[in-house]
Amino acid sequence: MSLKNLGEVSYFRLNNEINIPVNGQIPLHRDHDALDAFFAENVTPNYMTFDSLEARFDYLLKHDYIERAFLEKYDFSFVKSLNDWLYAQNFKFKSFMAAYKFYQQYALHTNDGTAYLEHLEDRVLLNALYFADGNEEMARQIADEMINQRYQPATPSFLNAGRSRRGELVSCFLIQTTDDMNSIGRSVNSALQLSRIGGGVGLNLSNLREAGAPIKGIENAASGVVPVMKLYEDSFSYSNQLGQRQGAGVTYLSVFHPDIIAFLSTKKENADEKIRVKTLSLGVTVPDKYYELVRDNADMFLFSPYDVERIYGKPFSYVDITAEYDRMAANPNIKKYRIRARDLEQEIAKLQQESGYPYIVNIDTANKANPIDGRIVMSNLCSEILQVQTPSLLNEDQTYQTLGTDISCNLGSTNVVNLMQTTDFEKSIDAMVHALTFVTDNSDISSVPTVQNGNQQAHTMGLGAMGLHSYFAQNHIVYGSPESIEFTDVYFELLNFYTLKSSNKIARERGVSFANFERSKYADGSYFDDYIASNKVLSEKVASLFDGIAVPTSADWARLKADIQADGLYHQNRLAVAPNGSISYINDVSASIHPITQRIEERQEKKTGKIYYPARGLATDTIPYYTSAYDMDMRRVIDVYAAATKHVDQGLSMTLFMRSDIPRGIYEWKTDTKQTTRDLNILRNYAHHKGVKSIYYVRTFTDNGDEVGANQCESCVI
């Protein structure tokens, strides 16, 4: 028997029996039966064994499965001891879904696809050795964090570490265009290159002149942003990593761009094929001024980017529209177009109902919270990366007269359930920071110089979290309750404090800080004012949850401030909460920090049919705390995200979960159950009011069991 011919197996049937109640009870034991059967019938007979670890590595090296250079940084006796230690931890998957996902998507297979070459311990070993870069003590610590599932690298890092035939270790990229043909051409090439090496790509189109704008004095010559979007979509379709997956991209446009209606129309179901984009995602950057105009039921002006750049001397994205709106409106030299703000608001809500798009980036909120000198102008494919960029200036031959900075995303996640059991929170976070730093230091995106330049200057990373709802349920905390918000606040303060501490230590050891550190709010100390002034007193329940974990005091923050002002920070950005895909199943926890969608989640696998996944720790006592996101007031989800946002220097990928037929009693403003655009308008405005920086998908569960706007961000999820 081999993976190519498994014959009759029982594990799918056993797993499917979870969904068939017995005497009114969920037969959860069937999932454990399926897990046992999966190992007996699939994994054990198809795992290639060797007489010794030396023989195993000789085989992997001889057949070009793994790189040699990182192994040669260690004495092999250490590699063997770490391998033995990992297997001695007796790791066990807790669900069929977790094991199935790992062996199908992450474990190394033989070239002919007939056998497995890795268990989870083997994958963790290569990750630890690779990211520790020859440091034995750090390799032990990273291995400890990963085998105990306190830390999970992003899919590209976890999957590719140590492999000789691999993609990049980073997750996704952000690039921008300026208002000239050279920049557009260069960005199309960049999209091709970045999609080829493995990442989803975010593209900012706000600087491009609108359709009908003049070119070199010729009126109505410009074609606007939509034809450029079609170029990107075709590029991603073509550059699909040897057919392994569809290339993925998102285009961002300012809500004040004259092409905004045409931009949104590209995703409508009845859009003409000439303008329709099928696979490209849409995002809108929204300044505070827009919310003000909607609230006042006022007209709004859309401004020509060409004229704005001519008057202000910088690309449209880099102009603070909220601050400049009245002057721009009064300037006769800036062409403008008048529409009703609420008409546009209605168009956005209607499209979100229909497709889940556009993502929303509250761009002023992001910039107000940004401690770095410069301007955030866009986000990424999953809306959690928010970093400053600088535009490039190109020569006619597409070489760079001024090399700007763009972004590569380097992600990882803490597992809240397991990290809260650690004996040393600081030590755990330090290992995670070092693992992420290795990826940042060793990323080589030379094919796109702006991304390379940005990474070399900023050394950014994005550590986040998964399993928050799982943790709440296990501790009998209602998602969205005051206790859940308080816990989230403290947990993310801990992430912030200890990542800052680790980054400061690396800066001190290397004598290097990120570029322009001296112009940041870290350097002038203002970033720390609120933390130092805080005299937080925890409730009895939340205090008990953090018993044994060092929660930083005002004095701790004051000392950290002094250390950072003295020695700097290595990383410009440190925290970001991405969505989680299959990797959260492997960790046996709820995805990201949002609520679960189903107590027994149903997944449609391409070749095998339906697989069922019971929520972590689902039992009689936890069922009341596992409310589906679709049956929850989304304001409570926003409240939880807002609590985390205060401490996250980038963004959080927040999805809104709605039903087409909303249960009565969830929202006090509703007199019937039908979802309306007003519901989405209220929730988007509430999120803005609470200081949430971005909204990812709006997912709608329909009466016929379909999901509109289901998560498609496969390239960027952790």
UniProtKB/TrEMBL annotation:
This is Ribonucleoside-diphosphate reductase. PANTHER family: RIBONUCLEOSIDE-DIPHOSPHATE REDUCTASE 2 SUBUNIT ALPHA (PTHR11573:SF30), RIBONUCLEOSIDE-DIPHOSPHATE REDUCTASE LARGE CHAIN (PTHR11573). Keywords: Allosteric enzyme, ATP-binding, Deoxyribonucleotide synthesis, Disulfide bond, Nucleotide-binding, Oxidoreductase. InterPro entries: NrdE_NrdA_C (IPR013346), RNR_1b_NrdE (IPR026459), RNR_lg_C (IPR000788), RNR_lsu_N (IPR013509), RNR_N (IPR013554), RNR_R1-su_N (IPR008926), Rrm1 (IPR039718). The gene is nrdE-2. It comes from the Bacteria. One of its GO terms (cellular component) is ribonucleoside-diphosphate reductase complex. It comes from Pseudolactococcus insecticola. It is an enzyme of class 1 (oxidoreductase). One of its GO terms (molecular function) is ribonucleoside-diphosphate reductase activity, thioredoxin disulfide as acceptor.
